[in-house]
Amino acid sequence: MKIKKLLIVGLAATTIANVGATQQASASIATPSSITDSNKFDKLHSKLLDHRKNAPLMITAHRGQWREYPENSLGAIKEAIKDGAEIVEIDVMLTADGVPVLMHDSTVDRTTNGTGKVSDFTLAEIKELRLKEGLGGKTAKLTDYTVPTLEEAMLAAKDRAIVNLDKGWKIREEMYDVLVKTDTVDHGLFKGSPNVEEAAEFMAMDPEILYMHIINDNTADTVDTFPGRQPVAYEIIFNDLKNPQIQPEKIQQIQKNSRVFVNVMWYDLAGKYTDEASLRDVNLGWKVVTDLGANILQTDNVEAMDYWRDGGNMKFWDAQKGNRTVRVQAEDYLPGGQGVDVSDSNGAIVVNSNQEGEWAKYEVNIPKSGLYKISGRVSASVAPAGTIRLEWDGDFSEEIEVENTTNNRAFELQEWDYRYLEKGTHTFAVHITEPSFHQLDYIQFDLQK
Ligand SMILES: [Ca+2]
Ligand SMILES: [Ca+2]
Ligand SMILES: [Ca+2]
Asked: In the list 150, 216, 227, 332, which could disulfide-bond 100, CB 3.0-4.6 Å?
């Protein structure tokens, strides 16, 4: 209860601040927005074509900003752009009546309240469905968002972002027709791993077509073999720095004409140099990949990457601005405990919890006496995801519910408790009080003013 009240106060304050900011922003806009927007897009388009070795880093949002809106929704596209992405990656499939719509899986089961194959739904039928929050899943909440058409997506991004069209190489002609209709051919970044002739033939259809060629261990030698225009970028998929496609000579060869795109979400796409590794230490992730020459990164952590790109120190990422923050990694538990299972989740080192009665003990060094907000960075793919209690020398907190984050890869900081702590070293324990299916990355303490 106590936690909920504090939350509401916090939200009210944020809302008031936002209203003020919006009013100020709208009052200061005096120029015709269409001219400003298309100039802005021209710059963005030139940036994509800038293939110099040290061309500025561009951020691609994987399935849009799914941390705040359903993946592949119009809300996710708009939010990704607002959060700093220049490129928004979406997945495209055809309905039964041949309309390109945004959907990652071949069925609607994971991300909507419907079941069945996308290709069995007409547009009218698929529009009846509602998207689930985040990355979906059986127990994820429904939202008011519906499945967007590619046309709606292109209009949402028009003049504002490049749209990376994934999953749709086979339906490239249908997608191209939508881009022509919405006057956004120069906004669409087609991608695929067809043979060079097939890709070159498609690119030759229209000089405005932007194409990115995906290469892996077996296709590294296709670089620089396109007969006419070269791809605007190559997406390099690698799982080891010894792979031929990630060697310095290969990168140099790509950079003669194209940008270097790396997908940093998972181990099998970017070796060990993932988003989660970067959140631990950027020298274990993004820094390594960009030093190798990658200058477009596709991420599940747009806000964090934008913060880092702007010169932010990742040690302070997710910390409350102006407050002192202390983090205790879940894997750094003290000897003892019950059922503590540590694992590596694409670069996040976590404790997996599931049985009632499990617990782990920790030590935290508090730099300054005061009231601390205590949060846990967790992920869970189900609801309910269990409950925990914090223990301070026999003094137990109220029961804290772990919220569904819609996927085990979808970590988020969840507010747990508030506690006055004296300066110095404290020990505490995290107890699982109801069967729980979550992963705990770290426990964070933010000093309240
Ligand atoms: Ca945001
Ligand atoms: Ca995709
Ligand atoms: Ca951790």
From this structure: 150
The pTM of the full predicted model, rounded to 2 decimals, is 0.90
Q: Looking at beta carbons, which pairs linking 31-36 to residues 24 or more positions away fall under 8 Å?
A: 34/159
Using the mean position of ligand 2's atoms as its centre, give its distance from the Cα of residue 47 in Å: 22
| Residue 248 C-beta-side C-alpha neighbours within 13 Å | 2
CA of 303 to the centre of ligand 1 (A): 7
- Note residues around ion ligand 1 (Cβ under 5 angstroms): 83
Class of domain 325-447: mainly beta
The CATH architecture that domain 47-316 belongs to is Alpha-Beta Barrel (3.20)
Cα of 77 to ligand 2 centre, how many Å? 13
Tokens for 223? Answer: 């670089």
User: What is the distance in A from the centroid of ligand 3 to the CA of 377?
Assistant: 8
Distance in angstroms (rounded) separating the CA atoms of residues 341 and 183: 53
Q: What is residue 147's DSSP assignment?
A: P
- At position 408, the amino acid (one-letter code) is N
Residue 273 DSSP SS3:
coil
* Segments making up each domain of the chain, as ranges: 47-316, 325-447
Q: What is the pLDDT of residue 38?
A: 85
Ligand nearest to the CA of 440: 3
- What is the 69 CA–ligand 1 centroid distance (Å)? 9
Ligand nearest to the CA of 235: 2
pLDDT at 199 over 50: yes
Query: Has residue 334 got a pLDDT over 90?
Result: yes
Predicted local confidence at residue 36, as pLDDT: 80
Cα of 79 from ligand 1 centre, angstroms: 6
